[in-house]
Write a structure and sequence with these properties.
It is built from three helices and five strands; from the N terminus they run H-E-E-E-H-E-E-H. With 100 residues, it is of the alpha+beta class. It has a five-stranded antiparallel sheet with strand order 3-2-1-5-4, covered by helices on one side.
């Protein structure tokens, strides 16, 4: 039986595109809202236009290095903003992810 090919979730692709098209930065804010629980107790939004970003997709993007910390948080290891990698880096990640 052939194994099913792994695909990068569409929500991640849409979120990355939204972040990149709105200036390339994503911000996070601590929250106890139910939606924030899927994103590690944070809500996420694009910095330049405040467009909401799915917490699960934003968490995936950050944890997989598709957005790098800007180091603007109150503490050294808690950045509030992240800069998206280039689209070519994103597509390279996507290709590697889908061939795993």
């Amino acid at each position: 039986m052939a194994s099913k090919r792994k695909k990068l979730h569409r929500n991640v692709q849409v979120a990355f595109s939204r972040i990149y098209q709105s200036g390339g930065y994503i911000c996070r804010q601590s929250s106890d809202a139910e939606e924030a629980m899927r994103g590690g107790c944070f809500i996420y939004f694009a910095r330049d236009n405040n467009a909401p970003i799915s917490p699960a997709a934003a968490k995936f993007i950050i944890e997989n290095g598709l957005a790098e910390p800007v180091s603007d948080g109150l503490f050294a290891d808690t950045s509030q903003s992240f800069r998206a990698v280039s689209p070519s880096e994103f597509h390279s990640f996507k290709e590697r992810y889908e061939t795993m």
